[in-house]
Amino acid sequence: MASSLASPSPTSSFIRNKKDLGFSAFPSTSQIAIQKCKKQVSKKIVSVMAPQQSERKPATTGSVKTGMTMTEKILAKASEKPQLSPGDNVWVNVDILMTHDVCGPGSIGIFKKEFGQNAKVWDREKIVIIPDHYIFTSDERANRNVDILRDFCTEQNIKYFYDIKDLSNFKANPDYKGVCHVALAQEGHCRPGEVLLGTDSHTCTAGAFGQFATGIGNTDAGFVLGTGKLLLKVPPTLRFVMDGEMPPYLLAKDLILQIIGEISVAGATYKAMEFVGTTVESLNMEERMTLCNMVVEAGGKNGVVPADSTTFKYLEGKTSLPYEPVYSDAQASYLSEYRFDISKLEPLVAKPHSPDNRALARECKDVKIDRVYIGSCTGGKTDDFLAAAKVFLASGKKVKVPTFLVPATQKIWWEDMLPDI
Fold this sequence. Notes:
Domain Aconitase/3-isopropylmalate dehydratase large subunit alpha/beta/alpha: 85-359
GO molecular function: iron-sulfur cluster binding; lyase activity; metal ion binding
Low-confidence stretches: 1-60
Organism: Gossypium darwinii
Mean pLDDT: 86
Order of helices and strands: HHEHEEHEHEHEEHEEHEHHEHEEEEHHEH
Strand order of the largest sheet: 1-12-9-10-11
Pfam families: Aconitase
Keywords: Iron, Iron-sulfur, Lyase, Metal-binding
């Protein structure tokens, strides 16, 4: 089974990495400590002329391996390279390509234009197509997008096409899933150590499973459809160490808003964001997905959480494919490292008009609201609704403004929202 193959041995880099983190208590006067790593990403110098070669003796100390981060290791494996550094450009073998009804038709059009009207996709079992935006509408042009996906999937015999046919009743569609990022996880398409690309900026959500996941454009997706490969630049990594017991009134959304508030919406531009620490280890998979989902709001290329027993337990029964998790080396080089004592963090909000316009929730208690929406790929999971229910119950009052609760997927609606029906 996949789960038995995935468990790291006692001598794995995962165990060594946890030991080498050197977590310590934080001073009570500081909620966050930010420090630059001593190791900085080195810049390669390429000479235009080959220097004169002097005679040298053979090395006697053996090969020297430079430590790599999780992101670097995943891309090295996917590009069949023994070593990668930030800034390297490599052709990467893609494990999963996801597209939906917004970008799917455009990606398909590019694929047919460049590879031919009768061309076949590189692997019909590695393409996941999920209608999730232009649905439940009477707009014929919007419906046409889903029609194009359906025709293409029939033509190419795509294995994982989660179709929707009855637009009048979502419950009448046995294959319909919902929001693509949550559905990818629920259907077992997210696996540690793999490369998952999707035509949506929040594809980075899947990094919660210890894989490289990022959003791409239609042109890139069209190329991947035909070749299964994509040229990627290896990003440097920012490391976020979060320790301390998670207060019961906090969610992963508070953690990522704290981070974005510290580094700004441009602070992680084309960088990997790696999340570690005892707080992260205590999060379930839904909360880890929230954490990784919003790295793009900081400009990040991808977010990633080390796979552990929580990850492997979640994947049991969801995938039968073997997978191989990877972990950052103890001697890996990070561009920057940020440390947080989560036990001292308060609930946060992002005020208009930017995710980094962070404020304490208690500072906004007098702000009047007209409408409430709880849902989407960030806030439409089971844990989000349970958290909202606790707030409603604790208040002892009835809701006074229009409030919309929208489960991210049909599975959340049936299995979690209505367990007794």
